[in-house]
Fold this sequence. Notes:
The structure holds two protein chains of two kinds.
Chain A lengths: L1 E8 L4 H9 L1 H7 L3 E9 L3 E10 L2 E13 L2 E8 L4 E13 L2 E12 L7 H27 L4
Chain B lengths: L2 E9 L3 H9 L3 H5 L3 E9 L3 E10 L2 E12 L3 E8 L4 E13 L2 E12 L5 H23 L5
Antiparallel strand pairs in B: 1-7, 2-3, 3-4, 4-5, 5-6, 6-7
Helix pairs in contact in B: 1-3
Amino acid sequence: MRDIRVQHPLAIDPSGAMNAIWSGAEWDARWDAIRSFDVRYDDGVHQIARIVLDWSGDDVAMDVVRFRTDANRIDFFCPNPPRPLSYQSGSWGVESVDGECVLVAARRIALDPALPESGDAHRERLETYAGQLEARLSRILERFARGPG
Amino acid sequence: MSRTVSVERAFEASPEAVYGAYWGLENWPRALSNIVDAGADYDDGVHQCFTMVVDKDGARETVRGVRIGVPFAKVELCQFVPPPGFRVMRGEWRFAPSGTGTQVVAERVYETSDPAGGDAAGALLKSLLEKNLVAFDRLLSGGAA
């Protein structure tokens, strides 16, 4: 397992950012890597969606269950994580860090161990993926921290 | 409009034991005779996608949903395929230490397909939740279901 945490200063009110992250339509509008964000269930507290997104030129699909743990936090897990991951869970949240309001993305990931590879090669592959994911999360946070448009 | 019902019961078992009993899907058919089968399509220890087959007066009903565990304080439930007659069915079991045992609160938030049926549905849910608590208390006490 590899943990990731990325944050970005928040320029809008926290509820606006969290509501936008909850909305499949906002993902479509703000993040161009989204191919589709199909919400299959949403009761306002729990949400189930099938997301297809671009990852390095490939379309990858994931099933995600998201749930609001409080007004400023959305947790999630992936019953079917995007390849090449075998596990992904995490959260989106608004926190106060050193007196600054920030939007935070946290992830716990594991790579599919199906490939025959050494432990060192697996760790290197995981670190490479984690670096790419951190960079992507930074760009996503920037999109959602500034409001629509 | 969503409504909420809740019931509670004092268990002699510890919060760890009560949480474990509710989280383990294999315990459900043991605790409740109308649960024919229960299993997880996904379980990472704190998140579950589950299926239960329930016998209702001889008819089989399949319940699908997700559960989220907060060891040993809470099991949250969302039936993304709600039971017949309901638009929303979600809730939680909360486990609070009480002496050497556990105070268990079972809560459901629901919306009925027919708004006029809310009161009757609430009374039925309350009765089912009370039976649920009794059944798991008996299971943990070593009694028969």
